[in-house]
Amino acid sequence: MLMNDKISVIVPVYNVKDCLGRCIESVISQTYQNWELLLIDDGATDGSGELCDQYEQIDYRIKVYHQKNQGVSVARNRGIDLARGEYICFIDSDDSIETEMFEKLKNAIVHDSCDFVMCGFKRIYDERIENQIYPESILHGSKEIGMFIQNNYLKWLISSPCGRLYKRSLIDKLRYDESMKLGEDLHFNIRYFQKCNTVTVIESPLYLYYDYGNSLTHRYIKGNYEAICVIYVDTINYLISISDLDSVDFKNINYKLFSFCVSFMSQNIGCDSFVNEIKFIKQVCENENLNIAISDLPDVGVIYRIYIWALKHKLVAILWVLSMIKYYFNDKR
Fold it and tell me: How far is the CA of 240 from the CAs of 84, 144, 158, 235, 248, in angstroms?
């Protein structure tokens, strides 16, 4: 086994003491053993950092780095800077992986001579498990990769950095945008896809995602709206650059921008003054990209059709009422 076959596993850690051991143990138990585990303690205050130190004493392949709390993007970027393996794998500290994940991903990236390999995942709730499986495929060239992004843009397969192997040499100077609080994973992946010539998808659900319902997408954070708009423009420009304009289907990409804007309008309720709530809705109404997007969407339900009608006619009062209803009967639950 060559040293340059090493997988650098990057795990940002912040206040996850109760489930951190499960994550680390799943790495230690891998059938493929040529790895280094970089635990980036992002200023945890619940003892997670101390637990990391204990594991560092147990296994020489585990390396711990402590820093003040700066967010997951800063932690991942530090991990990339410190990585020494040929491949990079990201795992969220409250998740875990099947014992054969490294072996299967590494075998695929070598066998297919690809730049990026990804797998399915298991979504684990309190009372049930859902297998998210994607068809086995090997994508060659920017046009096939671009079509894959179009067709899967709304899925975890495109937006998450977990359950996949990146080539460190191909990442090169690419880093997470540390100013983004939402969508930074998708933004990173879209820019990495642009560097790839071949991408492999394996069917097996090897990543274990524990859904606790506390995602950042479930609450309003200032700057999220701007971040999603940046990602939308970057994705559209990338797809246009590799395809004829007439051959690009923007529906899924447009839907993501539209659905996030709907969510942000309701999530902003109660986070700001009434005047600023109205000002934000007006800002959304004036978004030229959104106005283009809502004219080319997949089929949507009645409520979303009302949103589309109100956005097209810039009916701010109706959008505020819809946002209030959504906030109190959906988002606030």
Answer: 35, 13, 18, 9, 7
- From residue 82, give the alpha-carbon distance in Å to each of 72, 93, 178, 185: 15, 18, 17, 19
d(CA 57, CA 34): 18
Fold type of domain 3-210: Spore Coat Polysaccharide Biosynthesis Protein SpsA; Chain A (3.90.550)
Domain extents in the chain: 3-210, 250-331
Per-residue pLDDT tens listing for the chain (333 residues)? 444 699 999 999 999 999 999 999 999 999 999 999 999 999 999 999 999 999 999 999 999 999 999 999 999 999 999 999 999 999 999 999 999 999 999 999 999 999 999 999 999 998 899 999 999 999 999 999 999 998 888 888 899 999 999 999 999 999 999 998 888 999 999 999 999 999 999 999 999 999 876 544 444 456 788 888 999 999 998 888 887 656 678 899 999 999 999 999 998 887 778 999 999 999 999 999 999 999 999 999 999 999 999 999 999 999 999 999 988 877 555
- The separation between the first and the last C-alpha atoms of the chain, rounded to the nearest angstrom, is 52
Q: Which residue has the tokens 């007006």?
A: 282
